[in-house]
Specification:
By secondary structure, the protein is mainly α. The protein has a domain at 119-202 and 216-366. Helices cover 62% and strands 0% of the residues. Keywords: Membrane, Transmembrane, Transmembrane helix. The chain crosses the membrane at residues 125-145, 165-183, 245-266, 278-298, 318-336, 342-363. InterPro entries: Citrate_utilization_prot_B (IPR012830), NarG-like_sf (IPR036197). This is Tricarballylate utilization 4Fe-4S protein TcuB.
Length: 394
């Protein structure tokens, strides 16, 4: 049994003079543990999502288990609406809210560098939009000093304003920092989750199953395929569809940038590109998809029932949605206005939005996709192991 193995390791450590370190749970973590004990006795929601099958493999819930379950939760709300112990019952079981509070805490706890973890609490809508506007204004002032903010003989080529090497020098270090910071955080998360999820290594079947769950957003179907809940008791697939628009729109825009990079350095084909080139096709489709997805998620987020999640994280959610929308909208506007006198102004607006998005990626809602993927990978590994909780377990 997992608990017996843990006690054995602790006994060995104590016998060898090693300290026994038991993490002290925060109030949100303790609340998840309390609710999971109640849910483990009921098990009515066992077929809803990955959280409850993972829960049934445990008799107690340590910090690593709680972090794991919180990031498995997709906040679909199905368990809240099905629960007989939900508020106003005295047990006050609200799994979506409890999990959301711990998820927000894990983003900050696993952030790198640790000192910047508090930015998760401060990365709100106002800060995100203000950062994008401030960066855009800075670029506008720089361009205006050259007398080219409006009009000018640019002939649709924005590299005459900002040379390619300058843009690479601005964005490459930020992008590399984002990758490094998120990589450091999720690596630490993975190392702490692995012993709590059987300790078995990742294998190809598990990776394939988790990848499919991520790409399909499997657990936003409510467990029955009819969707999750948003503002009332009605089932809806809206969140799943708008998440798909956003997710795949982002991937297409990233693919457009990657292909353009190959064009530039491998083939010597320099931007700007136009239809029907592959970078432009990917960028236009991705940009439109991002606008549709983020507009839909914004509407759903504003209308969602307050019991469905953690209200304190709403500014962070809306800030990320707003930056994604501004990035896609300004990118499409830049393409459509490339042959107009507004090119320089639109370019500054777009670069400001992109820079703000990059700067906040490691400390905003983007992290939830990274941590949730890691949790789904560990779930796919764990479910293939023998269940440590058998008949007669205590």
């Amino acid at each position: 049994m997992q608990q017996l193995d843990a006690l054995t390791r602790e006994a060995v450590a104590l016998a060898g003079g090693g300290p026994r370190v038991i993490p002290i749970l925060s109030a949100p973590e303790a609340e998840v543990g309390r609710q999971m004990q109640i849910c483990n006795a009921c098990r009515y929601c066992e077929g809803f999502c990955a959280v409850f099958p993972a829960m049934t493999r445990r008799l107690e819930f340590g910090q690593a288990d709680i972090h794991y379950l919180a990031n498995l939760c997709h906040n679909c709300g199905a368990c809240l609406h099905a629960c007989q112990y939900a508020p106003p019952h005295e047990f006050a079981v609200n799994v979506p809210r409890a999990m959301a509070e711990v998820r927000g805490q894990t983003y900050a706890d696993y952030a790198w560098p640790p000192a910047l973890g508090r930015l998760y609490q401060r990365n709100g809508l106002t800060l995100s939009v203000a950062l994008a506007a401030g960066l855009a204004l800075f670029l506008m002032l720089a361009v205006a000093l050259n007398g080219t903010l409006w009009g000018g003989r640019l002939e649709g080529n924005f590299y005459r304003l900002f040379p390619h090497n300058l843009l690479v020098g601005l964005f490459a270090p930020v992008f590399l920092f984002v990758v490094f910071a998120l990589g450091k955080g999720v690596t630490r998360f993975w190392r702490e989750l692995t012993p709590a999820t059987s300790g078995a290594p990742l294998n190809a079947p598990a990776a394939g199953e988790a990848t499919q769950a991520v790409l399909r957003l499997k657990y936003l179907d409510g467990g029955h395929g009819e969707g999750c809940h948003d503002e009332d008791d009605a089932y809806t697939l809206s969140r799943r569809r708008f998440h798909h628009f956003t997710f795949y729109g982002f991937l297409l825009c990233f693919a457009a940038t990657s292909v353009a990079t190959l064009y530039h350095y491998l083939f010597g084909w320099h931007a700007p590109y136009d239809l029907p080139s592959l970078p432009k096709l990917l960028g236009v489709v991705g940009g439109v998809s991002l606008m549709v997805g983020t507009a839909g998620l914004w509407r759903l987020n504003r209308r969602r029932h307050p019991l469905q999640g953690d209200a304190s994280q709403k500014p962070m959610d809306l800030g990320f949605i707003a930056l994604l929308f501004l990035t896609s909208a300004s990118g499409l506007a830049l393409w459509l206005g490339r042959g107009t006198p507004a090119l320089a102004l639109l370019l500054c607006l777009h670069l400001g939005a992109v820079m703000a998005l990059f700067a906040t990626l490691p400390y905003g809602k983007f992290a939830h996709g990274i941590f949730r993927t890691a949790a789904l990978l560990r779930h796919a590994v764990e479910k293939r192991r023998p269940n440590p909780i058998g008949l007669g377990a205590d």
